[in-house]
Amino acid sequence: MRILVLNGPNLGRLGVREPEVYGSATLEDLQTTLRADAAKHDIDVRQTNSEPELMEWLYEAVDTGTPVILNPAAFTHYSYALRDAVAMVTKAGVPLIEVHISNPHAREEFRHTSVISSVATGVIAGFGFDSYRLALVQLTRN
Ligand code: DQA
C-alpha cells in the first residue's frame, strides 16, 4: 500500500526550528523512521510551504485512493481551503489522519482551534514523531 505523509509550512525546518518544541530530528529522519516501521509499504513523505501544492496532493490522494497522514502545520488553524480539500478525501472514503508533533491544545490559544479535525478520519497529537508512527499503525492494521 502507498501512504502519503504530507507536511505543511515550516516543517521542512524540523531539526533547527524550535527544537524545544519539535525536537532535533529532521524530516528526513522522519522518513527513515516511517520507512523502517512499514517496510512492506510505500511511504511517500512530502513537505511544502504552499497551500495550493498541498491541496493538489490531496486531490491526488482522492484520485488514486491513497491514505494520508497530514500535518497541516499552521494551516490547521485557519485554512478553510485546506479543510475543504481534506473533506474531499474523507468523503471519497479515503482515510486521512491529522497529526501534530506538539500538543496544540497545551500551547497558545490560536492553536486550540483546528478547522481540519472535524473532517479528518482521526487526530493524533502531542507524541513527537510517534504521532506519525501511531497514525501509520492505524492505516496499516490488518
Ligand atoms: C504543528 C502545530 C502547529 O500549531 C504549528 O503551526 C506547526 C506544527 C505540530 O506538528 O505540532 O507548524 O502542526
From TrEMBL:
Database matches in InterPro entries: DHquinase_II, DHquinase_II_CS, DHquinase_II_sf
Any one GO MF annotation of this record: 3-dehydroquinate dehydratase activity
> Record's PROSITE patterns?
DEHYDROQUINASE_II (PS01029)
Under SUPFAM superfamilies, the record lists:
Type II 3-dehydroquinate dehydratase
Q: What are the transmembrane regions? A: none
GO terms for biological process, alphabetical: quinate catabolic process
The record, for Pfam families, names: DHquinase_II
Report the EC code(s) recorded for this entry. 4.2.1.10
Q: Which UniProt keywords apply?
A: Lyase
Entry protein name: 3-dehydroquinate dehydratase
- Give the organism the record lists: freshwater metagenome
